[in-house]
Amino acid sequence: MTDFLQLLISGMATGAIYALAALGFTLLWQASGTINFAQGEFVMLPAFVMLAFIAMGAPLAVSFLLTAIVAVIVLGWAFKRGIADPLLRFGLMPIVVASIGLAIAARNGIRAGYSAEAHPFPSLFAQRLFTVAGVNVTLADIGTLAVALALVIGTQAFLAKTVTGRAMQAVAQNTESATVLGINVPRMIFYTFAINAVLACAAALLVTPTYLAKFDMGESLGTKAFFAAIIGGFNNSRGALLGGIIVGVAENLAAAYISPAYKDAVALVLFMAVILFRPQGLLGKKVERKV
Amino acid sequence: MNRSVALAIAAIGAAILLFVPPFLKNYGIYLFSYWLVFVIATMGLNLTIGYAGQKSLGHAAFFGIGAYTVAILMKAGFSFWLGLPLAMVGCFFIGLALGFPALRVQTIYLAFATLGFNTALWLVMRNEEWLTGGTFGINNIARPGLFGISLSGNLAFYYFILGVAVIMCALLWKLLSSPWGKAFTALRDNPIRAESLGINIQAYTLLSFAIGAVYAGVAGALFAPLVEFIEPAPFTVGASIMMYLIVVVGGAGYFWGPLVGSAVGVILPEWLRFAQGWYLFVFGTAVVLLMLWLPDGLLSIPDKLRARRLSREESAARAARAAQLGAQR
Question: What angle do CA B218, B224, B227 make, to 5 degrees?
C-alpha cells in the first residue's frame, strides 16, 4: 500500500508536467486550430536556453524569467507569424508537416550546435525526503505537483475570470461572432501562443531536473502531452490536467505492477479506449459535424 | 501540363530508372531501391490521406507488418512467394480494422488513433523476442528468386523492386480512374454530400485504409530482403510521421506526389550529408520553408504556374478591354 501511494504521488507529479504541455497544446488548437507537432521541442528548447543563461551566471529564477521572455518572442510571436498564420488557411496538413519539420530542425539543431549529451539541470527544490505514515515523498514531487497545479489553475482562472481571458474563450468558440463583438481576434490568438510558450517554459523548468536536458527529450514528452490532451478532452482546458495526471499515474503504476517494457502501452490503451468510446475526451463536449 | 511535356518527363524518368543504376556503385543502387520501396509505401498512404482525405499517422506499422511477416516466414523455411501474399492479406485486414476508428472519429483524433496503433505494434516488435527477435531483430534474410532467376545481386533486386513498383503504380492508376477512385475523392471533398449521393462512405473509408495498408505491406515485404536485416527502428511512429511528410511534401492527392516526396524524404537527407551533423537540421528547415512556399506540395508547382499565367492573361485582357473602351470614347 505504501508503495502504491508513493507511485501514485510521483506519477501525479510527472502527470502534472504532462498537463502543462497538454494545456498549451489544447489552447492552441481551440484558439487557432493549430496542431503543434513540435510541442515537445517547445519544452526542450527553453531547457537549453535556461542552461545557457545559468552558464552565464544568472540564478535559476532570473534565467527562467529571461527564458520565458525569449520564448514568448520566438515560440509565441515568431512561430505564429512565421509558420501558423500563413499556413492555417490551407487546412491541417501543411501546418502539421511544417511543425514536424520544425521539430526535426530543433532537435538536430541542438544536437549539432550544442551537444548530443544529456545535461544535468538544477532543481527548483531542495533534496529532501518526507516520511508521512511510512510513505516516502520527495520535496521535488510535492513541489512539482504544487507548481504545476497552481499554473494550470491560474491559467484556468485567467481564462474564466478576466476580460482578456473571456475574450480569448470567445475567439476559441466562435471567431466570427468575436470579431463582430469588437474583440481583437489576432491579438487574442497571439496571447494564446504566448501562454503556450510560457507554459512550455514552466514544464521545462519542472521536468528537466529528472529528464535531464537532452536534444530528444521532447519526443516522448510531446507524445505524452498529445495523449493527455485527448484523454482529458481536446476542447476542454480542464481536461488537459485530468488527462496528464491519468497518463502520469497510469505509466508509473504499469511500470511497477505490470511490466516496465509495456509501461507506455497503458497510457496507449486508455487513449485508444477514449478515442473509440468517447472521442470528445473525458471532460470534453461533443461537437456535431457541420455540413 | 501539356501532353508532350508530360510524355517527355515520363520518358526521361523511365530512362533514368532503367539505365542509370547499372552505372552506380552498390550504395547508389541501394538508395534507388530504398527510394522505390518508399514510393510504393507512400503511394498507398497517398490513397488514404490524399485521395480519401483520411488522416493516418500509422502507416509505418503496416510497413513493419509486411517486413516482419516475410522475415518470420522465411526464417521458418517458407518461401518469399508465400510471405508476400500473406503480408498483403494480413495488412488488408488489419488496415480494415484500423479503419473502424475512422468511422467514429475524424481529423486529428483519427491521426492520433493511428499513431497509437503504430506505437502499440512497435512495442510488440520490441518486446516479443520469441517472435520478432526484439531489439536484436532478424538477420540474414535471403533475397528471393523469380522463375529460376536469382535476385540476390543488388542490381537484380533493384530491377525486381522496380517491376513491383510499376505494377503497383498501374493498379493504383486503374483504381483511381475507376468509379471507385471517384468515390474516394468524393469522400474527401464532401463526405455528407457523397453519402447523400448514395456512396457507402463507411465502406470506402475502410477500403481506403485497407488498400493503403496493402501498399505498405508490399513495400515492407520488399524492404526486409532489401536490407537483409530488420529490427523495430524503421517502423516507429517517427517513420510514420516521415511517410506523412513525404506525401504532403510531394503533394497529397497528386498521383506522382509520392515519387517526388520520397525523393525529398529519402534521397535529400543522404545528399545533405555533406552538412554532417547539421544535415537533419537543414532538412527540417527545408521542409518548413517548402511548406510555407508550397502548402499543397511540390507537384502543385504546375498548377501554381498555370494559375499565375491565367491571371496574367486575364489582367492583360482586362487592360486591352479598358484601352478599347478608352479609344471608343
Answer: 130
